[in-house]
């Protein structure tokens, strides 16, 4: 018969049937990997075919709407709302991300590697390959090297057709920069 174990306060377990047994430490948490090792889907821009036809110049009202959507998508991403975010992806982007399960896995990997945003530095609408792109730049709890940039490339209707999450030095520059 295998002895029962129970957790203690400090992350160790002890043998309930042998009061003289010493606590055994739990295995150490896996080492954090650098953000640059994020999944390929999180680092690549939208496929060329998806951005082949640049959006016509948007009005100030359309830009404000896309900025608000970008903020919402970013909030959903950090809140773990993969179902909601999947509804904002166009069909091609959703397939590339491997559906809700792929989005969830990406959220978990980013959380493990970068932590959570501690200070928002920039939130703006830019353009990438002629398409509107929401740019969110922040400092993160587990990634002190440099700010991290979250990007949502959208079509004029606000559907996500590309995305990226990179250290700022690896983020593709917006058009005109």
Please give the number of β-strands. 7
Order of helices and strands: EEEHHHHHEEEE
Largest sheet: 4 strands, antiparallel
**What is the beta-strand fraction?**
25-35%
Shape: globular
Secondary structure tally, helices: 5
Distance between the termini: 68 Å
Helix content: 25-40%
Radius of gyration: 21 Å
Q: Low-confidence spans: pLDDT under 50, at least 5 residues?
A: 2-52
Structural class: alpha+beta
Average per-residue pLDDT, rounded, comes to 78
Overview features:
alpha+beta, 4-stranded antiparallel β-sheet, 3-stranded antiparallel β-sheet, 30% helix, globular, disordered N terminus
Descriptive report:
The protein is α+β, with helices and mostly antiparallel strands and 177 residues long. It contains five helices and seven strands. The protein has helices spanning 40-43, 60-79, 82-88, 91-96, 99-114, and strands spanning 5-7, 12-15, 24-25, 117-128, 131-140, 143-154, 160-167. It has a four-stranded antiparallel sheet with strand order 4-5-6-7. Strands 1-2-3 form a three-stranded antiparallel sheet, with no helix packed on it. β2 (12-15) and β3 (24-25) form a beta hairpin. The protein is globular and about 40 Å long. The termini are far apart. The model is unreliable at 2-52 (pLDDT under 50).
């Amino acid at each position: 018969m295998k002895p029962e174990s129970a957790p203690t306060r400090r992350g160790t377990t002890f043998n309930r049937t042998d009061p003289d047994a010493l606590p055994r430490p739990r295995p150490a948490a896996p080492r954090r990997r650098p953000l640059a090792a994020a999944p390929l889907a999180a680092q690549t821009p939208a496929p060329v075919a998806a951005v082949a036809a640049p959006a016509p110049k948007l009005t100030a009202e359309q830009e404000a709407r896309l900025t608000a959507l970008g903020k919402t998508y970013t909030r959903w991403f950090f809140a773990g709302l993969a179902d909601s975010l999947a509804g904002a992806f166009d069909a091609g982007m959703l397939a590339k991300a491997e559906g809700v399960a792929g989005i969830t896995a990406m959220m978990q990997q980013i959380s493990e590697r970068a932590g959570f945003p501690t200070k928002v530095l920039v939130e703006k609408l830019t353009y990438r390959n002629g398409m509107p792109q929401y740019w969110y730049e922040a400092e993160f709890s587990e990634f002190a090297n440099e700010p991290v940039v979250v990007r949502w490339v959208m079509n004029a209707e606000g559907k996500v057709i590309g995305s990226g999450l990179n250290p700022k030095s690896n983020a593709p520059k917006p058009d005109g920069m």
